[in-house]
Amino acid sequence: MSATTSFLDRVTEPAQLRSLTDAELDQLAMELREKMIRTVQLTGGHLASSLGAVEIAIALHRVMDSPRDRIVWDTGHQAYAHKLLTGRAASFGSLRQVDGIGGFPRRTESDHDVFDGGHAGTGVSIAAGLAAARDLLPPGDPGRRQRIAVCVGDAALASGLTLEALNHLGQTHHRLLIVLNDNEMSISPSVGGLSTRLNRLRLSRAYQGTKSLTTRVLPRIPLVGRPAYRALSWAKEGFKRSWAKVSFFEDMGITYIGVLDGHDRSDLEQAFESAFQIDRPVLIHVKTIKGRGYAPA
User: Fold this and answer.
1) I need a surface site. Which of 155, 171, 174, 183 has the fewest CB within 10 A?
2) How many whole angstroms separate alpha carbon 115 and alpha carbon 131?
3) Given a cut of 50, is residue 290 above it in pLDDT?
4) For the whole prediction, is pTM greater than 0.85?
5) Which domains occur in the chain, in start order?
6) Has residue 54 got a pLDDT over 90?
7) Rg (the chain; Cα; Å)
8) Closest CA to 101 of 119, 118, 117, 89
C-alpha cells in the first residue's frame, strides 16, 4: 500500500471527480480501497461490500451532481466509497466510533446522504418516492431535471419492500436509475425464483455480448446514437425471449440493461448516462467481486 493518498486528499467534493483523468481515477480507486482496509482493520466494519462497490460510487458521482441529484444506497454498508468521496476522508478514521463517522448513510452527517439506510430492502422504495415527488414539480421547474439513482444488492430483491416498489415503478414513467450490484453473496444464500432468474441472466453470454455492444457503442454515435439506443431498448424484447428467457424486470415494465462489469468504470459511466436519457425506470445489472482488492475480505 502507498504511504499517501494524494488524489483522495484532493477530492473534497464529488464534482472534483470530473476533472480527473482515467489514470488518476484508477489511482483514486486504489486509494479508496487502501483507506477502507486500513480503517476497518482498526475500527471494524463492513469491508467486503464497500470494496466491491468502489467503481460504482465513482461512476455515479461523475455522471450525477450530488447533493442536488440524489443517490440512495439500499444496503448502507456498500457506501464507504460514497462517504470518502463526499468530504469525509479526513474523518474516516472515526468510522463506527462514538461521535464519529457512521457505518451507514446518515442524513445528519452529510447532505449527500439521502436517508439513514441500514440493511437491504428499503432503498428502491425511497428512490421511487423521491422520483414521484420530483415529477410533481410544475413544468419548467429546474428541479424536474434532478437525477435519482439507487444502488441495491442482489439479495435485496427478495425483500417485499423492493418487490412492491418495482411493481409500482413499472407502471410509471419516472426517470430513475436502479443499479443492481450483483456479487452473488449475502449474509445467507439467496434462494427461490428470483435467485434462479438472476442466474439465468448472468449465464446468458449471447445476451450479455449484445447488451455490451449496445451500451458501449450506440451512445457514442453523434445525433443518432441515443435515439437508436432508446429504440433498441423497446425492440429487444423478442431477442431476449430467445436468449435470456423472459426478463423479470422487463415483464414488470422496467427497462433492463446488463450484465455489465461492475469494475469497468468507463462502461458504467456510459451506461448510467444513457439510462438517464430514458424517461422511465431503468435497471442496470452489474456484476462485482465482493472484497475486490483484498483477498481476506
Assistant:
1) 171
2) 14
3) yes
4) no
5) 6-287 (3.40.50.970)
6) yes
7) 18
8) 89
